[in-house]
Amino acid sequence: MKMKYMAFLMVVGLALPAQGSSRTDSLLTMLDKAIQEHEVYMHQKETRIERLKAAERTAPAVSVEKYDLQMQLYQEYKSFVCDSAIAYLNRNVRLARQLPDIDRENDSKLLLSHLLASTGMYKEAVDVVESINRKTLNKNLLVRYYTCFDHAYGEMGFYTQDTESRGRYWWIAGAYKDSLYRVLEPGSDKLLELQETALRDEGKYDEAMKINDQRFGKTVFGTPEYAYVAFYRSLIFKVQGDVENEKYYLTLSAISDIHSAIKDHASLWMLAQIMYEEGDVERAYRYIRYSWTETKFYNARLRSWQSADILSLIDNTYQAMIEKQNNKLELYLGCITGLLLLLVIALVYIYRQMKRLSTARNNLQVVNEQLHSLNNELNEMNSCLQSTNDDLTESNQIKEEYIARFIKLCSTYIDKLDAYRRMVNKKIAANQTAELFKLTRSQDALDSELQELYVNFDTAFLHLFPDFVKKFNALLQEDERIVLKKGELLNTELRIFALIRLGIDDSSQIAEFLRYSVNTIYNYRAKVKNKAAVSREDFEEIVRNIR
Q1: I need a labelling partner for 43 at 20 to 30 A (CA). Which of 117, 333, 347, 353 fits?
Q2: Local confidence band at 206 (pLDDT 50, 70, 90 cut-offs)
């Protein structure tokens, strides 16, 4: 995930104009990290190769399936290990003859010719492509046929030291390029590449950049195609003299090369050359050494020759810089030795002073420990006193609230009892004993008084603990929380635990107050604790501590 995230940042970063050295510096830091982690990408590549090899070994000896698997192995190896890529293409040439399949044979030969030319084996590349009968090629293969000639002679013209031969090679490459223009489909990748190169060489940089934008739109970061197009973009900035943007896109290309486990790349050693010219010799040395190691792994003589000069130059400069730093280190070492002697003398003096202070420090330590112990004891006492004060304050508040309620309730009951007495006296005087007998047998008056008693209790309790219901529900599982009916202050379950909060935890006392049996109260308590979201054993203790 980490590497995917970094790739995402790269793609987003590309959507903005590459301006300022700070963005390039950030990108260079990402490149340094990618180089450190290059073995991760190499392992991914090797895993894919081993999987393909296992499938290729089990495929029928002469079959299209084996051909396709060997072609996939070539694709994995073509920028990874040159020798292996060539070997698999040669196998496919022989296998296509056995099938027989002239299109597949020509396809493999064209790929082989292009790869040989890319690695500096120009004679072999031309021999392979000349062995193909052009009349047997379909349109797609014809495009690749002309491309191989253009590529081989173009490379020969670029790298030859014979001026006369250079002109002849480039003339031949130009002729095949003209043939390519005639057969390429409008908008094809190869046509866009040729057009971009031609416009760049003609100095039409804005038009070349527009075509490069089209090519960029077809690529994805972390792929060989992305690295290739980013490299071409850097070339446009190079001929314009825009070094900052050239560095930016060379860096993007190099990072994408590393993510793709590509060993055959030019971006990094060209970037190393720029870093060297800007004076960042240490970074240039790291880049060129890594690029050289990758080139040796790829095992193509041309690539080694291309990077050898800059490697030698940077290496010599780096070694000179190291030697200069070593001379400075020797000077610094002499200074440090002198300072060390002075430090030893100072330490001896300090040691003597420290011994004198040691005794005083030990005495102070003993006193400090005693004071610390006393402070701890005082803190514990203060905590106990504070807890006791809090409990007393709460207890006094509860007593004041319930005493006031009790006095008011007693007064109310005396008034009710007197009214009841007058009513009884009146009915006896009126000889309404039957009606009086019926009235005294009814449970309604008792239920009404109990309801009023519970309302008074609920009101007083919630006045003391207004958040009790909310905090109590927080102790229960979310789907088991108590929802009160309209007009209810507390229900039976809440009253039981309200009494527990007030310190009445004996089930018989709770049962007597709520007019239930002891077993019913016990069952209510157990049922609620089974719904607890906290420890069942600690549930009632937690309720007692609700404030």
Answers
A1: 117
A2: very high
